[in-house]
Design brief:
By secondary structure, the protein is α/β, with parallel strands linked by helices. The protein has one domain: Rossmann fold. Helix content is about 40%, strand content about 15%. An 8-stranded mixed β-sheet has the order 1-4-3-2-5-6-7-8, with helices on both faces. α1 packs across α9 and α4 runs parallel beside α6. It starts with a strand and ends in a 7-residue tail after the last strand.
């Protein structure tokens, strides 16, 4: 069940409106903040009310006044369409969609299970949010963008949708519940996003919509020091990304400054894929 979780229910509809799924997560919260600072009205969509509250507490009053929050689940068609209906009831239109929602499922231990033993239910749970959810949101938001003849969609993929994970970077690292890894379902879901991006860019470009993807490399976020060292050693710049570096790229592709970029996958990896 969705519900509004802040008091700002009447944004100025003359401003551009951006809807960000996974909006209270690490990258999503930064994207919402940067868009608000660029004078967007922002709709932060997330499935976790506590995470939304935490993200909003970190914002300045100006940013907070520009951000509306919706609690909801994009992993079903009905859930995604209901969220978009609620957003349109409040804001009237959506100019930018950022498909950023992703999940490690309700059990991190299950998410990191070795591929050979991976449960079908866990696979489906990841795909439902990471890939299906992006499709449903493209459907729901794309419908009104097509009627208006304009819009920008940015899908947030991953370096592991482009290249295979080097398992050596996980050697000697630990997650609180299980050794770190990148499961096949994550790679497959993010690679699928790139296919979705190209499909809609070709289909909707002639109708005034731009659809692009950002592929982040690893973002430093308090990971195991061994992992940070191992990963950074594979990157020509010698470090992991900051969250702001990824968020700023997403906001650029969403902006009018990228008005002739369509169907592109912008890889932000410090040069990792140049080797």
């Amino acid at each position: 069940m969705k519900r509004m979780v802040n008091e700002h229910s009447n944004p100025n509809t003359s401003r551009r409106v951006a809807l960000v799924t996974g909006g209270a997560g690490l990258i999503g919260a930064s994207v919402c903040e940067l868009l608000a600072r660029e004078d967007f009205s922002v709709i932060m969509v997330d499935s976790d009310p506590a995470r939304i509250k935490s993200a909003q507490l970190s914002y300045s009053s100006r940013v907070k006044d520009s951000c509306k929050a919706l609690v909801g689940d994009v992993s079903t068609s009905s859930g995604a369409h209901a969220l978009v209906f609620e957003a349109l009831q409040s804001c009237g239109h959506i100019d930018v969609l950022i498909n950023n929602a992703a999940t490690k499922t309700s059990s991190v231990n299950a998410f990191y299970t070795p591929d050979i033993d991976y449960e079908a239910a866990t696979w489906r749970e990841v795909m439902a949010t990471n890939l299906d959810g992006a499709f449903y949101m493209c459907q729901a938001v794309g419908r009104q963008m097509l009627l208006r003849g304009q819009g920008s969609i940015v899908n947030v993929a991953s370096i592991y949708g482009v290249v295979g994970a080097d398992q050596r970077i996980y050697e000697g690292t630990q997650h609180p519940e299980k050794q770190l890894s990148t499961p096949a379902v994550y790679a497959a879901s993010k690679a699928g996003l790139l296919g979705l991006t190209r499909h809609f860019a070709a289909a909707w470009g002639p109708k005034g919509l731009r659809v692009n993807a950002v592929t982040p490399g690893g973002v430093e976020n308090g990971q195991d020091p061994t992992f940070i060292h191992n990963y950074s050693g594979k990157v020509p710049l010698g470090r992991m990304a900051t969250v702001t570096e990824i968020a700023a790229t997403i906001c650029f592709l969403a902006s009018n400054g990228a008005s002739y970029i369509n169907g592109h996958n912008l890889v932000v990896d410090g040069g990792l894929t140049t080797w």
